[in-house]
Specification:
mainly alpha, 4-stranded mixed β-sheet, 16 helices
């Protein structure tokens, strides 16, 4: 039975890896095939040079992603069937009491450190080679190391206590532990939504109140029309890491704040910035945040219940190459297996997200001119080197936003209707 389960897991990993490689190869072929001509809908909006830059950037990232996919699969099999996790567990048992909280934290730390070391070359290459080559990177080696140090500090100060509480609940709350962990996890996520804008985000970026009075007046009028209250409109120094632009609102309740990348403000006209903000407000007005939180809550409850069943089955550990079962080990194994099992369902989550994007676009078209949002999006596509010709199937699995051509076509139709 154990051997059969191991073979099924191995077959699933191989199948998903082959599928991911095939999807990426489709993307490479499709983008390369359409590299030499700007799509008709963008012919008067995007130059051929910008279109080809976006294509080349996509191809470079896709080729790197193929290598990364293979390394991820190899690491997954090394952790499980290869016995790497089991070896880490036995090594820690020589120094820490088996089943203790320190043992559990040590096992997670070992798992995280190995994953970090394996991923580090890809992160460095993406930042200092691919992004550098296409003119996006503003990150210095010093800033890169500083970010890693800050992330490590957050993992120790927040992640370790959080994990400790989860392990304690799993050990102390009998067979209903998964319900208590779920309630604790929901509460923690809501707390992070409140604390992130004012505590965590400022550790990595500088946020200053929007100083442009004309733009601020325009934004205040939009917020009043939409009935949106926030703690302020801020500009983030995104240019310290990248030339790419974005905008978002973050926080929860009275802590909500609107954030513009400084790179975005440099490139868009006030009317276009207003349209981008109207899109972001559309997510709020259409309750997309709460819908996403609800979906996350339902899925996480189901996954925790499933983990509660699996962690009591010796075959679960044995089939994945582990001879040292336990709460921490079960969490790690589940986190490794779950993405593999769920990958074929990615289009469902993608469809859920795209529906929200279309609804937010429609809301923006009601509050501002649809043509202004179109111009803003085209500039973002151009300046961020986003491909205008993604492979449809690859996009369905990997992109939370609709393809550029479909999104712009809908907005053009909304503009004509208005």
């Amino acid at each position: 039975m154990t051997e059969t389960c191991s073979q099924i897991f191995l077959a699933l990993v191989v199948a998903v890896t082959v599928m991911r490689l095939w999807l990426t190869q489709r993307q490479i072929r499709h983008v390369g095939k359409h590299r030499h001509a700007v799509p008709a809908r963008f012919a008067n909006r995007i130059s051929l040079d910008d279109h080809q830059k976006a294509a080349d950037y996509t191809l470079a990232k896709s080729r790197l992603a193929q290598i990364h996919t293979l390394i991820e699969a190899a690491l997954l099999l090394a952790f499980t069937l290869g016995g790497l996790l089991d070896a880490c567990a036995h090594l820690l048992q020589q120094y820490l009491p088996d089943g203790s909280y320190l043992y559990g934290l040590g096992l997670f730390a070992s798992f995280g450190f190995i994953g970090f070391v394996v991923d580090l070359p890809f992160s460095l290459y993406r930042t200092f080679s691919v992004d550098e080559r296409f003119g996006f990177n503003k990150m210095t080696p010093r800033l890169y190391l500083t970010d890693i140090a800050k992330q490590t500090m957050l993992a120790i100060l927040i992640g370790a206590p959080l994990l400790g509480v989860v392990l304690w609940l799993m050990a102390q709350m009998a067979e209903r532990w998964w319900l208590w962990v779920w309630l604790f996890w929901l509460g923690f996520n809501l707390l992070v939504m409140v604390a992130y804008p004012t505590v965590i985000a400022p550790m990595f970026n500088k946020f200053t109140p929007l100083a442009d009075d004309t733009l601020r007046t325009r934004i205040d009028a939009l917020l009043a029309r939409c009935g949106f209250r926030s703690s302020g409109v801020f500009v983030m120094d995104g240019s310290k890491r990248s030339t790419q632009g974005n905008a978002y609102f973050t926080g929860f309740g009275a802590a909500k704040r609107i954030v513009f990348f400084d790179t975005l403000l440099e490139r868009l006209q006030p009317s276009e910035i207003e349209a981008v903000l109207a899109h972001e407000l559309g997510h709020f007005k259409r309750r997309h945040i709460w819908k996403s939180i609800t979906l996350m809550a339902v899925l996480s409850l189901g996954f925790l219940w499933l983990l509660g069943v699996l962690m009591l089955a010796p075959q679960f550990y044995a089939a994945l190459g582990v001879s040292a079962p336990g709460t921490a080990m079960s969490l790690i194994l589940f986190s490794l297996v779950l993405p593999v099992v769920l990958f074929p369902l990615s289009p469902l989550l993608s469809a859920f997200s795209r529906k929200h994007e279309f609804e937010a676009d429609a809301f923006a078209a009601e509050q501002t001119e649809a043509s202004e949002l179109v111009m803003a999006l085209v500039k973002l596509y151009r300046d961020n080197a986003s491909t205008l010709t993604p492979d449809a199937l690859h996009s369905l699995f990997h992109d939370s936003h609709p393809p550029a051509s479909i999104r712009i076509a809908r907005l053009d139709a909304l503009g004509k209707t208005a």
